[in-house]
Amino acid sequence: MASQSIARKAPRLGKKQIFMPNFTLTLLRTPQLPPTFASFIVPLNLNKLDLRDYLWNAYGIPVRGVRSYIQMQKIRQDKANAKRPSPRRWFRPRSIKKMMVEMEQPFVWPEEPENFDLWDKSTFDAAQKDREETESSFRPDYREKPASDRGSIAEQAKALLRGEEKWKPSLNDWEDDGDAVEVEQNVKI
């Protein structure tokens, strides 16, 4: 009888041992859930028992229950990272599998840092903005959108109408090279 009571207290575990996993688990920050719950993005072929065994064997976390669902992605008109856009070619991105784990002990996220200088976030943000602008120039509807300098041209026009600036024709900026010279002189017509 004593061996049965000990077996009941230990968590039920599978016999599948995972030493060096070849998959990636992404722990999601979910402030709306209580601290005893954790949410993960997992590969599509991972099941509830695998996740429970992994958390117990790798981190020693006893799990009360696991809930899983597969989130289907929206249909798009083009592949996200395509070098050349191809409109009217429908594509559905791969589905995402999420699992929510109920733990016996609470887990509290560390606070987000206020200063991101150690990670050089300003350079990352500038590169990402430049990348988005470059990608948008390859889209089929790029020519239908107004140009980026259109706002400054409108401001200059308003200043001219109010009389704050004077109109200067650009033809006067040309240099005078002297008399016009015929380029082709020996042409018979």
Automatic annotation (TrEMBL):
Xref: InterPro entries: Nucleotide-bd_a/b_plait_sf, Ribosomal_uL23-like, Ribosomal_uL23/eL15/eS24_sf
Organism of derivation: Cudoniella acicularis
Ranges of Acidic residues composition bias in the record: 173-182
One Pfam family, short name: Ribosomal_L23
GO-annotated cellular components: mitochondrial large ribosomal subunit
Keyword terms, alphabetized: Ribonucleoprotein, Ribosomal protein
Ribonucleoprotein is among the record's keywords: yes
Single GO MF descriptor: structural constituent of ribosome
Any Gene Ontology biological process: mitochondrial translation
Protein name (record): Large ribosomal subunit protein uL23m
Biased composition annotated in UniProt, kind: Basic and acidic residues: 129-148
Keyword Nucleotidyltransferase annotated: no
Family statement drawn from the similarity comment of this UniProt entry: Belongs to the universal ribosomal protein uL23 family.
TM region positions: none
